[in-house]
Amino acid sequence: MAESHIENVSDTARWVAMYRALETDRPDALFHDPHARRLAGERGARIARTLPGFRSGLWPMVTRTCVFDEMILRAVERDGADTVVNLAAGLDARPWRMALPPSLHWFDVELPGILGYKVEALHGQAPVCDYEPVALDLTRTDERRALFVRIGAKSRATLILSEGLLVYLADDEVSALGSDLHAVPSFRWWVLDLVSPKLLRMLNRRWASSLESASAPLRFAPADGTRFFEPSGWREDEFRSTFEEARRLKRSPRRFWIWRLLSGFAPPEKREAVRRMAGIVRLRRFD
Questions:
Q1: Model confidence band, residue 214 (pLDDT cutoffs 50, 70, 90)
Q2: Burial class (CB in 10 A: 0-12, 13-18, 19+), 155
Q3: What does the domain layout of the chain look like in residue ranges?
Q4: How much is the CA Rg of the chain, to the nearest whole Å?
Q5: Among 138, 163, 128, CA closest to 13
Q6: Torsion angles phi and psi, residue 279, rounded to 5
Q7: For residue 2, what pLDDT is reported?
Q8: d(CA 178, CA 200)
Q9: Rounded CA gap, 225 and 236, in Å?
Q10: Positive or negative: CA dihedral 181, 66, 23, 202
Q11: CA proximity to 68, closest of 39, 19, 31
Q12: How far is CA 264 from the centre of its chain?
C-alpha cells in the first residue's frame, strides 16, 4: 500500500496532530502543543512527508484549533461551563496544554485503540483539570446514551465538542447524535466544524483517494447549514467563518487576496454563501 494513503481512521488523528506540531514549531505560533509531535509519532511524520497536498490542509486546521480553543475558554470563563465532553477526541491534548481551571471536568471519548495510545503516550504528564478518558465507539447508541446520562447527572453546564467528527458521518447519524445530546438537560452548548456541499465536493476531489483505505469518506455537509440541527433541538448561537478567522489570525493561504478581491464584486447573497463554505459553529440547545 502506498505510504501516502491513510491506512486506518486513527491515522487521521496523527495527520491532524502533525498540523498542531508544525504550528507549535513556528516562532510566531498561535498555540503551543508540546505533546503534538510525540502523539503524531513516526507514522504522523511519514504522512506529513508523503500525503499529497498535506500542506494545503495546514491553514484551516490551525485556524480550527485556535477558534475551538477560544470558544472553550469563553464557555468556561464567561458562561460557566463546568464540564467538557470531547467526542472523537483523537490525539487532542487540550487538557494538558490549555489554561483550564483544575475544577473543570473533561471527558475524552474515543475508540479504545487511539485513546489507549494517547493515554500511554502522555503517561507521567499531569492534565491541568479533572480528566477522564472514556473508551467508546460512538456508533454504539445505547452505550453513548448511557455515558451522556452519567455525565449529565454530575454536571450543571456542559460544553460538547465534536471537532473533525461530523464530516465523516451520514445525515441520519448526525441527527441521532444531536437528539441524544439534547436529551440531557445540562448539555447546553455544542461546538462543531461544518462545511458546505460545494466545499465537500472539493475536499473529496482532493482527499477521497487518500481516505479510501481508512474507510473514512467525507459525507456530512447539510445544504441548509446550521438549520439542519434545529429538529434535534440545537440552534446556531455563533458562526465563525474559517476564511475570515484565518485572515484574522494571519494564517490565510497564499493568493487569498485574489479570492477577497473577486468576492468584493459578488452580490451579498453570494458573498455570504462563500463565507459559510466552512466554519466553526457554536450551537445552543433550545426546548
A1: low
A2: buried
A3: 57-285
A4: 18
A5: 163
A6: -165, 170
A7: 44
A8: 21
A9: 10
A10: positive
A11: 31
A12: 30
> What is d(CA 13, CA 7) in angstroms, rounded to the nearest whole number?
12
Dihedral angle computed from the Cα positions of residues 92, 165, 61 and 279, in that order, rounded to the nearest 10 degrees: -130
Q: How far apart are CA 211 and CA 7, in angstroms?
A: 8
- To which residue does cell 504522512 refer? 47
CA nearest to 35, candidates 104, 113, 95: 95
Distances (CA, A) of 199 to 47, 53, 114, 219: 23, 16, 28, 11
Give the position of cell 486513527: 10
* Three-state secondary structure call for residue 256: helix
**pLDDT over 90 percentage in the chain:** 78
The residue with cell 453570494 is 270
Mean pLDDT value of segment 151-171: 97
- Give the CATH number of domain 57-285: 3.40.50.150
Least confident of 6-20, 97-111, 135-149, 204-218: 204-218
- The whole-angstrom separation of Cα 173 and Cα 171 is 5
Torsion angle in degrees (nearest 10) through CA of 118, 124, 127, 133: 40
Question: Any idea what DSSP says for residue 249?
Answer: T
Q: Are 95 and 108 in contact (CB under 8 A)?
A: yes
Question: What is the four-CA torsion angle of 171, 159, 282, 44, rounded to 10 degrees?
Answer: -70
Give residue 261's pLDDT: 63
Task: Give CA–CA dist 252/62, Å, rounded.
Answer: 10
The count of residues in the chain is: 287
Enter the DSSP assignment of 87: E
Cell numbers at 11, concatenated: 491515522
Question: Buried b / exposed e across 209-236, counting CB within 10 Å, b at 16+?
Answer: ebbeebebebebbbeebbebbeebbbeb
